[in-house]
Design a protein that fits this description.
By secondary structure, the chain is α/β, with parallel strands linked by helices. The protein folds into 2 domains: about 5-65 and about 330-455, Lyase, Ornithine Decarboxylase, Chain A, domain 1; about 90-320, TIM Barrel (Alpha-Beta Barrel). The protein has 12 helices and 24 strands. Strands 4, 17, 18, 19, 20, 21, 22, 23 and 24 form a 9-stranded mixed sheet that branches. An 8-stranded parallel barrel has the order 5-6-7-8-9-13-15-16, surrounded by 6 helices. Strand 10 (about 195) and strand 11 (about 200-205) form a beta hairpin. The chain binds pyridoxal-5'-phosphate. Pyridoxal-5'-phosphate (PLP) binds next to helix 10.
Length: about 475
């Protein structure tokens, strides 16, 4: 007779190679959590001076929590790092916050107050930045398929720079400025053939993807921009990928893009070189991202070296970090609903811990196989650590929140679970799969909390359904 499946796994499945069993499955790994995250005397997680249990009582779960001091500190540190690195070579650096990582009016205010400009990637993102009172002249506008209406709005608003991604867009914009009499500063996005993803980079002659112009096609596009009186060419733009560790990919890309920049100087001054974002963060204790100061010095140094080798003046630099500003400032709180040991081949079992959100509030594990970590947030536990998989409540077996993590083995329904490093690309990519309302975003700071984006209700979702005939129930 088969033995009954017990509550605790008897033959746990092996952990992935990168994950080691912690000495303390309550510990908050440095760099993965906001700097001020701690546990109080009762063992509850405290974020920005507010306990996770208090946040659950007040706002419910799932809940996105954003640590305002952490966002501000990261914005300041990043700006200081790039300014200092540029100053070593006698040039200036501008840092745009890449709003796609997390955009709300409040976050735009935080980062602009800390001195950052903002990069937006759609008319909707532009509307959020403008609604926050951002200075339009400090906005950069991205996208591979900006509509005529979006471009018209950007020109009318006085957006500081538009990053041109195709010839079709170039002519669209040319027609708009010819009609309105405006002069629009533009950059040209190029594809350096260098693609960096996670801890590695790949360099090819051409990259088979949708963004930007190849290095060969760019000169003709720049020549066309330069012959149009309503467009002012301010520089090249290149973004090589995301979650990048180390400077090797940036150095290779800088060498290629500076070569093009040097050629284009024959046609006139080019004040700026924008090298995009992509700076990596720690999602788990196994990640060891390069400090931003080191990246900044390495990248600026590479550009300086390439310019010197060609005998040209170094341009001012621009960067577009998103994840590194907001990622580690965000923590998602969930409530555990069920736990289940699942029997695997060879008598092993895996403990599945189901929470009340999932791929609708964090699509990254399903989209990219992204790894996260987790901790029980409502209490400390001395139970032996058990390897678990945290899953959501969606009808999809790929609905994984944390693929592999050690939690105290007595993790149980009703526990509050916190997943750190969810500040970037979780709220932005949130969806309503299975008609789950998107969670609220609460900012914490100095012991106080407040909603900065309200959570959706089921009535919000039903309000879009043109066929609803019966009154809805005011269901939150
Ligand atoms: C053009 C551009 N700039 C900046 C970013 C921000 O990247 P990250 O959040 O990894 O810094 C992205 C991300 O996709 C991007 O496409």
């Amino acid at each position: 007779m088969a033995s009954p499946v017990s509550a605790a796994p008897q033959h746990p499945t092996p952990a992935p190679a990168w994950l080691s069993e912690p000495d303390d499955a309550n510990a908050l790994a440095d760099g993965v959590w906001p700097a001020d995250a701690a546990r109080d005397g009762d063992g509850a997680l405290v974020l920005g001076g507010v306990t996770a249990t208090e946040l659950r009582e007040r706002y419910g779960t799932p809940l996105y929590v954003l640590d305002e001091a952490e966002v501000r500190a990261r914005a300041r540190r990043t700006l200081d790092a790039f300014r200092a690195a540029a100053a070593l070579h006698g040039v200036q650096a501008r840092v745009y916050y890449a709003g796609k990582a997390f955009l709300s009016t409040e976050v735009v205010r935080w980062v602009t107050e800390e001195g950052l400009a903002v990069d937006v990637a759609s008319g909707g993102e532009m509307a959020v930045a403008l609604a926050a009172g951002a200075d339009p002249s400090r906005l950069g506008f991205h996208g591979n398929n900006k509509s005529v209406a979006e471009l018209e709005r950007a020109v009318a608003a006085g957006v500081g720079s538009i990053v041109i991604d195709s010839l079709v867009e170039l002519e669209r914009l040319a027609a708009i400025v010819a009609r309105t009499g405006a002069t629009q500063p533009v950059l040209l996005r190029v594809n350096s053939g260098v693609h960096a993803e996670t801890h590695d980079f790949l360099a090819t002659a051409h990259e088979d993807q949708k963004f930007g112009f190849s290095l060969e096609d760019a000169p003709a596009a720049v020549a066309r921009i330069r012959e149009l009186p309503g467009l002012s060419f301010v520089g090249l733009h290149c973004h090589i990928g995301s979650q990048i560790f180390g400077t090797a990919g940036f150095r290779e890309s800088a060498a290629r893009v500076v070569e093009l920049h040097a050629q284009l100087l024959a046609g006139g001054e080019i004040p700026v070189l924008n090298l995009g974002g992509g700076f990596g963060i720690a999602y788990t204790s196994a990640d060891d991202p390069t400090p931003i100061e080191e990246l900044a010095v390495g990248i600026a140094g590479a550009v300086a070296q390439e310019c010197e080798a060609r005998g040209i003046r170094m341009p001012n630099l621009a960067f577009e970090p998103g994840r590194t500003i907001v990622g580690p400032a965000g923590v998602t709180l969930y409530e555990v609903g069920t736990t289940k040991p699942v029997r695997l081949d060879g008598d092993a079992t895996r403990l599945y811990v189901s929470v009340d959100g999932g791929m609708s509030d964090n699509a990254r594990p399903a989209l990219y196989g992204a790894d996260y970590s987790a901790r029980i947030a409502s209490r400390r536990s001395d139970a032996a650590a058990a390897l678990v998989r945290v899953v959501g409540k969606h009808c999809e077996s790929g609905d994984i929140v944390v693929d592999a993590e050690y939690l105290p083995g007595d993790v149980a329904p009703g526990d509050l679970l916190a997943v750190p490093a969810t500040g970037a690309y979780c709220f932005s990519l949130a969806n309503n799969y299975n008609f789950l309302p998107r969670p609220a975003v609460v900012a914490v700071r100095a012991g106080a909390s407040r909603v900065i984006v309200r959570g959706e209700t089921i009535d919000d979702l039903l309000a879009r359904d043109a066929g609803v005939t019966a009154p809805t129930e005011g269901n939150a």
